[in-house]
Amino acid sequence: MIRWVLVLLACLIAFHGAPVVAQGQCGTHAGMMAQLDREYSEGRIGLGLSGPMSAFEIWVSAETGTWTILQIYPNGMACVRASGERWQSDVPYIPGDPA
Description:
99 residues
């Protein structure tokens, strides 16, 4: 039974990570930051923790409207989790604000 659970867990991890690595969208955090700046003129506009093992950053270009979401790991690696065009910045919603 334990062997079956380990095989299933290994398969889930392998299939979940394969498309990102195959697309070449992971690298060192420093390298990914430099690439977003150099190739897309994107700068970081936000950061949020996702538990004790990762954080997410949002990168945006005010010039082109492109955006990227990076997931950062404690080992210094980062992976692109989403990207797109036509970014729009809104005023943050404040609960209880009548505006």
